[in-house]
Design a protein that fits this description.
Elements: H1 2-17, H2 21-34, H3 39-52, H4 60-66, H5 68-79, H6 85-96, H7 103-116, H8 119-132, H9 137-149, H10 153-166, H11 171-189, H12 209-217, H13 220-236, H14 241-253, H15 257-270, H16 275-298, H17 302-326, H18 331-344, H19 347-357, H20 364-377, H21 381-392, H22 400-416, H23 419-432, H24 439-448
Length: 459
């Protein structure tokens, strides 16, 4: 198995060198699924993701929309992560393909990997979170804890030294740095009787504080204390804009959505011309609806979930329209708005957005795919074929994206009445992925000469 894993990694690294980032990510995802504790595979995967987004990192709005399926996957995988931690780790990795710098998801990956005993992966996950969020001492301390546990004393000491430089009042970090220095010294001088820094801590009640720090930080009591402290500071300094934003963040983590939105409303009252405040409020409202949608799905309330989903699309569309109006040259925003409009059935407006983004090489192929779908919905089949054919240019291998394009192209050909061309597209998918959507049934009906009538394409 190790030989096969190495071949997969080498194939991914080779694709990375050739700047074929999508294929590199696809192959390296396979590698980490087979070898969950292989650091080389995850390092190459993260590098490919970062390189893909190097010149156009997804905006918060784009992550919120395109990352929703991955978030739902993480949610359901999380329900059984104790019994199958590797499944949850893969759900995290799928989200990170869109937002590889995400502190939250890297830390969730690290926590799950540590619990499963995949220490190499856990160390890498916390290291990644620290790298992209260099002022976050929580990520650093978790990184330091695992290095310490793995016997990497000098590396752990260096991590805690950084924490102390950022926050000299962090007593647990000061204590950890001191004990790591002592342990390193003991090892260098040969005093093996001190098995670890734990032997040097007189107050045994403090010995477990490093392991408990993150759990304490995230506890409900801690959030309540933080909220009360911010509210007290606001009472003394009611015009402090930053305090309202801090209050909204804490209330959001407590799932007190009304209070989180209310804090933004107060901030907007004091500075109504600041568009960024309205955008921030929109983000909170979107998260609120996403949370309600997941809860409805979990409870099996299908009708309620559908209603919330429709409202969520409306709220996101309004929010994106405002942002595009404020930042008309931001193609990330235009692309995301186009996706929302397409999903809502606002075809003409969606086409207008994608005709803007298709001019940029970074968005070209994805925009052409969506233009093909939009023209298909307008029954303008020749235009759809042209866009989808162009979307295939420069694509290599049979990636998920290529399958999507060929499936859509096959559907359009079939609607045009060109069964032979449709069969050709579906056959190429079937050869490599028999389970892709309903491609097997579609191909069988074409081969039997059966007519399907009006087709339904999952956009």
């Amino acid at each position: 198995m190790s030989t096969n894993i190495n071949k997969l990694i080498e194939r991914g690294e080779d694709a990375l060198k050739k700047k074929n980032f999508d294929y590199a990510i696809e192959v390296l995802l396979q590698a980490v699924s087979f070898a969950p504790n292989n650091r080389r595979a995850r390092e190459a995967l993260r590098k490919a993701e970062l390189k893909k987004h190097e010149h156009s990192y997804p905006s918060g709005f784009a992550v919120a929309i395109f990352g929703l399926p991955a978030k739902i996957g993480m949610f359901f995988a999380g329900l059984g992560k104790k019994g199958n931690p590797e499944s949850y780790m893969m759900a995290c990795e799928k989200f990170l393909t869109l937002d590889p710098k995400s502190k939250k998801v890297n830390m969730l990956l690290g926590d799950c990997a540590a619990q499963a005993g995949h220490l190499e992966t856990a160390v890498f996950a916390f290291e990644t979170a620290s790298e992209h969020h260099p002022d976050d001492v929580t990520a650093m301390k978790k990184h330091g804890q695992l290095l310490w546990k793995s016997g990497e004393i000098l590396k752990a000491h260096a991590v805690y030294d950084r924490v102390v430089k950022i926050d000299p009042k962090d007593q647990e970090a000061v204590k950890a740095r001191k004990n790591l220095a002592a342990e390193a010294s003991l090892k260098e001088t040969g005093f093996e009787t001190a098995r670890s820094s734990q032997d040097l801590i007189k107050d045994k009640d403090k010995a477990g504080e490093l392991e408990q720090s993150e759990r304490m930080y995230r506890s409900a009591d801690d959030l309540t204390t933080q909220r009360a402290a911010i509210e007290q500071r606001l009472a003394d300094d009611p015009d402090n804009m930053d305090l309202y934003l801090d209050l909204s963040e804490v209330c959001e983590r407590m799932k007190d959505w009304e209070a989180a939105l209310g804090a933004y409303d107060e901030a907007i009252k004091k500075k109504p011309q600041d568009a960024s405040l309205q955008f921030g409020r929109d983000d909170v409202e979107i998260k609120h609806l996403e949370s309600d949608h997941l809860a409805a799905v979990q409870a099996g309330k299908t009708n309620e979930a559908d209603l919330i989903e429709r409202k969520l699309k409306d709220v996101k569309t309004v929010a994106f329209r405002k942002r595009v109006k404020a930042y008309p040259t931001d193609l990330n925003l235009r692309f995301s708005l186009g996706d929302l409009l397409l999903a809502r059935g606002d075809i003409e407006e969606a086409i207008g957005e994608f005709q803007q983004t298709v001019r940029d090489p970074k968005f070209r192929s994805e925009s052409q795919l969506r233009l093909g779908k939009a023209f298909r919905q307008k029954n303008q089949f020749d235009l759809a074929v042209r866009q989808l054919t162009q979307a295939l240019e420069g694509q290599s291998g049979m990636t998920e994206r290529v399958k999507e394009i060929r499936y859509t192209l096959g559907d359009v050909f079939q609607l045009k009445g060109d069964g032979g061309a449709a069969k050709e597209q579906f056959s190429m998918i079937y050869e490599v992925d028999i389970g892709f959507r309903d491609v097997g049934d579609r191909l069988a009906k074409l081969e039997s000469g059966a007519s399907e009538g009006t087709l339904s394409l999952d956009d």
